[in-house]
Specification:
Layout: H1 9-16, H2 28-31, H3 39-63, H4 71-85, H5 95-98, H6 105-123, H7 128-162, H8 168-178, H9 180-185, H10 191-205, H11 213-216, H12 227-244, H13 249-265, H14 273-301, H15 307-317, H16 331-341, H17 345-354, H18 365-384, H19 399-414, E1 415-417, E2 438-440, H20 443-462, H21 467-482, H22 496-502, E3 506-510, H23 520-523, E4 530-532, H24 546-549, H25 554-559, H26 570-577, H27 581-585, H28 587-591, H29 596-614, E5 621-627, H30 631-638, E6 640-641, E7 644-645, H31 650-655, E8 666-671, E9 686-690
C-alpha cells in the first residue's frame, strides 16, 4: 500500500484531534492495532515531557562545573555583563566586540536577565555574596531552558516525521538526553548552543508539506490552516540563528533549495501560489528580524553596523581565522561528527546514508523530509571543511538532525517485535518501530553504550578542567573577606574615597594562557581588579606578510622558550610585566659612591617607578594565579627557592631581576585540573600564590596551604 503523502505531526494532530497520520508503509491491519488516545491525554503528555526536560536540564546546568572553551564567557557573558552593569563594571570585551564581529542579540538576552534578577535582589536587599552567587549561576540556569527546548523540539520533529504511534521519536529523545556532548555543552552559554535550539525549533515549525509538491495539495500546500503562521515562526527563528552564526545559512540553503525544487518541479508553473507565499514570507520575516538586529547593534555599539559583514571581512578577507588554529580538511568527518554522536555514531551514519535527498515525484513525504535533513548535514559539513579553522561546536546545530535520522535504526537494532505481533509487511526499520509490543535485544551492548555515555558525561562535566572555575570562587570569597565594604556591583554605587583606595590594589594577576578562566561574570565585583595575559590577533598586519608570521601575542611571548635554554617567562616578566624590576633590585649597590646630584636623580627615578606601579603600570598583585609549571619561572624571577629568600649579590640580581621587589611567594590555594590536557601550558594543578606585599592575605592561614 502506498504511504500517505503528509506527516501531520503534533500541530495538525492537535487541530484535527481525531486524525492519525503515518508516513510508513504499514498495513491497515497493523494501524488498527494502535490504540487511539484521548486529545487531553496527548496534551498532558506533551506538557509532562517538556516539564521533565526542564527539570533535567536544570540539574544538568548545576552539575556542569568545568571549563571548556573561553567563547562561553568572552563572547556571551562579558558583553552581557557590560550591558547589565555598565561599561565601567570591569567586563573584558575582546577584539571581536571592539570591531563589531558579533551580534548583540545573544548578549542582550543574557544582559536583560542579569539586570532583571539583580534588580529584584537589590529590591529585596539581599546579602551581596548571595547576590554574587546567584549572578554566577544565572546564565547556566537560563541556558538550561534553551537546552530543554532543543530536546523537546527534537522529539516534536521526530513525531512529525515518524508519527506519534512510532517508537522512533522516543528513541530520538532518548539519544538527545543521553548524549554526552549534549550534557557537556547544551547548558553552556555558547552562541552555538542557542543556535542549536533555534535551528531544531525552526525545523520543527517548518511546513514540510511543501516537499510533497503542489499536486499533492491541489496546487496550494501553504494554504492549509495555520501553515503560513508556522512558516513565519520557522523563518523568524532561522533568521535569528543566521544572524547569531552566519554559517547557519548553510542549513537553510539546503532546506529552501529542496523546498523550492519540489514546488517548481512538481507544479505546472514555477511561480505558483505557494512559491509566491514562500518568497513573500522570507522577505517579510527576514526584514523584520534584520531590523531588530540592526537596532540592537545600534544601541549596543553606539553606531550603525552589520556584524555578519564584519565577521566575513575579518575571517575571510583578513584570514584571521587561521590565527586560532588550522585543522585538516577531514576534521569534521574524523573528529567532529564522532565527538557529537559518540556511541550513536554507527546509527547516525546509517541514517545519513539511507536518507538520500530524492526529488522524484513518487517519493513519500517522509523520505523527502529525511532526505532534506540529510542534505542539510552534508551541505554544512562539506562547506565548513573548506575553511581552515574548525571546531566541533561549529556543527553543533546538526546534532538533533543526526539523532532524528538515527532513531529508526537504533530502534531496529535494539528491539524486535514480539512473535504475536510480527507481520510480513514490516520490512524496513521505520516500519518496525511502531508501538506494538517489542522486546529488547543486544542488552549487553546497550548497557555498555549507556555506561560509556554516562562515564564520559560525568567526567567531562565534573572532573575535566574544574580549577578555572573554582579558582575564581576562591578569589571572589577572599575579596569578600578582605574588602567587605567594596561588595558593590556597579562602580557608581560606591563612595568615591573608598573606590580610590581600592584602585591602588591589583588583587590578582593571571599568568596563564590567554582566556584560561572566565572573567567578570565570575569575579563579579568591579572593585576586584585583575590582570591577565592577552592574545589579541595581528589586526595591524597584512595576510601572508612576514610580520604576521613572526607575530607573538602577550601570552605567546610569556611562554616563548628562549634559545639560550633559560626558563621561559623570566625575560618577559623583567622586560614587559615589571620593567622597573632590574633597576630596583640593584638600586642600593648603584647608589654607593654616587654624588648628591646623582643620588637625587636616582631617587627621582625610583619615585617615578613607584608611581607607575600605583597607577597600574607594572604594579605588584596580591595574588598570582598560574598553572604549577610556571613555579620555577616565578622562583627564578623573584630569586626565591622553596619559599626562602637568598642573600642578594650583583650576580644574583642579574639572574633574578625581581629580587628587589619584596615578593615572597607562598602557595595559598591549588586545585586538580583533570587527568590530561592537550596544551602543555595548562597541565598540572592550578595554583594561587600570595606575593606577601599586602596584609591580611591568605598566607596568614598557613604557608603552602592546598585545597
Amino acid at each position: 500500500m502506498e504511504s500517505k503523502p503528509a506527516a501531520k505531526g503534533l500541530r495538525e494532530r492537535e487541530r484535527e484531534r481525531h486524525k492519525w497520520g503515518s508516513d510508513f508503509s504499514a498495513t491497515e491491519s497493523t494501524k488498527s492495532k494502535v490504540l487511539k488516545v484521548h486529545p487531553q491525554v496527548l496534551a498532558a503528555q506533551v506538557k509532562d515531557v517538556l516539564t521533565l526536560l526542564l527539570v533535567f536540564r536544570f540539574i544538568n546546568a548545576l552539575c556542569v562545573r568545568t571549563f571548556f572553551q573561553p567563547d562561553e564567557y568572552f563572547q556571551a557573558l562579558e558583553p552581557a555583563w557590560s550591558i547589565a552593569f555598565g561599561p565601567d563594571s570591569g567586563a573584558w570585551l575582546t577584539w571581536e566586540w571592539q570591531h563589531q564581529l558579533r551580534s548583540s542579540l545573544h548578549p542582550a538576552i543574557l544582559g536583560l536577565a542579569y539586570k532583571a534578577v539583580d534588580g529584584a535582589m537589590g529590591f529585596l536587599n539581599l546579602f551581596p555574596p548571595f547576590r554574587a552567587f546567584i549572578l554566577v549561576a544565572l546564565p547556566g540556569v537560563l541556558q538550561s531552558v534553551f537546552a530543554a527546548l532543543s530536546d523537546f523540539y527534537t522529539w516534536k520533529l521526530a513525531i512529525d516525521i515518524y508519527g506519534r504511534e512510532s517508537n522512533a521519536p522516543w528513541a530520538a529523545l532518548s539519544m538527545s538526553v543521553l548524549n554526552p556532548w549534549q550534557w557537556y555543552c547544551s547548558t553552556r552559554t555558547f552562541s552555538n548552543s542557542l543556535e542549536n535550539t533555534l535551528t531544531i525549533a525552526a525545523l520543527a515549525y517548518w511546513p514540510w508539506e511543501v516537499l510533497a509538491g503542489t499536486r499533492a495539495y491541489k496546487g496550494a500546500p501553504l494554504q492549509g490552516k495555520g501553515r503560513v503562521t508556522s512558516l513565519r515562526v520557522a523563518l523568524v527563528l532561522a533568521a535569528v540563528a543566521v544572524l547569531l552564526r552566519p554559517t547557519n545559512l548553510l542549513v537553510w540553503l539546503a532546506v529552501l533549495g529542496l523546498s523550492l525544487a519540489r514546488l517548481t518541479l512538481t507544479g505546472g508553473s514555477p511561480w505558483n501560489s505557494s512559491t509566491l507565499v514562500l518568497f513573500r514570507e522570507i522577505v517579510v520575516c527576514g526584514t523584520a528580524v534584520l531590523a531588530v538586529s540592526l537596532v540592537s547593534d545600534r544601541l549596543y555599539f553606539g553606531f550603525w553596523t552589520f556584524p555578519p559583514y564584519k565577521w566575513l571581512y575579518f575571517n575571510i578577507s583578513q584570514s584571521l581565522a587561521v590565527f586560532y588554529g588550522h585543522m585538516p580538511w577531514h576534521y569534521y568527518l574524523s573528529q567532529g561528527i564522532p565527538l557529537l554522536t559518540t556511541t550513536f555514531l554507527p546509527f547516525a551514519l546509517v541514517g545519513l546514508y539511507k536518507a538520500a535527498p530524492p526529488l522524484k515525484n513518487s517519493a513519500s513525504l517522509q523520505c523527502s523530509i529525511m532526505g532534506t535533513l540529510s542534505a542539510a548535514v552534508l551541505t554544512m559539513v562539506t562547506t565548513l571543511s573548506l575553511i581552515s579553522h574548525k571546531e566541533v561546536r561549529f556543527i553543533y546545530p546538526l546534532l538533533p538532525i543526526l539523532h532524528i535520522l538515527a532513531a529508526p535504526y537504533i530502534i531496529a537494532f535494539f528491539t524486535q517485535p514480539t512473535t504475536a505481533t510480527t507481520t510480513t509487511t514490516t520490512t524496513t526499520p521505520s516500519q518496525q518501530s511502531l508501538t506494538s509490543p517489542v522486546t529488547l535485544r543486544h542488552k549487553r551492548t546497550l548497557a555498555n553504550l549507556l555506561s560509556l555515555n554516562l562515564l564520559l558525561a560525568g567526567y567531562l562535566s565534573l572532573f575535566h578542567q574544574p580549577a578555572p572555575l573554582s579558582v575564581l570562587t576562591f578569589l571572589r570569597t577572599e575579596f569578600e573577606r578582605l574588602h567587605p565594604d567594596a561588595l558593590h556591583f556597579r562602580p557608581q554605587d560606591h563612595h568615591h574615597n573608598n573606590k580610590e583606595k581600592e584602585q591602588k590594589e591589583l588583587f590578582a594577576l593571571f599568568l596563564t594562557p590567554c582566556h584560561s578562566t572566565p572573567w567578570r561574570s565570575h569575579l563579579v565585583y568591579p572593585a576586584l581588579r585583575a590582570r591577565a595575559l592577552t592574545c589579541e590577533p595581528p589586526l595591524h598586519t597584512a595576510p601572508g606578510s612576514r610580520e604576521r608570521e613572526a607575530y607573538l601575542d602577550e601570552a605567546d611571548r610569556f611562554y616563548h622558550r628562549r634559545d639560550d635554554g633559560r626558563e621561559y617567562g623570566v625575560r618577559f616578566l623583567a622586560d614587559e610585566m615589571w620593567p622597573f624590576s632590574s633597576s630596583s633590585s640593584s638600586s642600593s649597590s648603584l647608589m654607593v659612591g654616587m654624588t648628591t646630584l646623582d643620588k637625587e636623580m636616582e631617587m627621582g627615578k625610583r619615585k617615578e617607578e613607584r608611581e607607575e606601579r600605583e597607577n597600574g603600570g607594572g604594579e605588584i598583585p596580591r595574588y598570582i594565579v598560574g598553572f604549577e609549571g610556571i613555579e620555577p619561572v616565578l622562583q627564578s624571577f623573584f630569586g626565591q627557592e622553596q619559599g626562602q629568600e637568598q642573600e642578594q649579590g650583583d650576580d644574583d640580581a642579574a639572574a633574578a631581576p625581581g629580587r628587589g621587589m619584596g615578593v615572597r611567594l607562598t602557595r595559598v590555594w591549588s586545585a586538580w585540573n583533570g587527568a590530561f590536557n592537550e596544551d602543555w601550558r595548562r597541565r598540572g594543578r592550578l595554583v594561587v600564590w600570595d606575593t606577601g606585599v599586602y596584609e591580611g592575605s591568605g598566607s596568614h592561614e598557613g604557608e603552602g596551604k592546598l585545597s
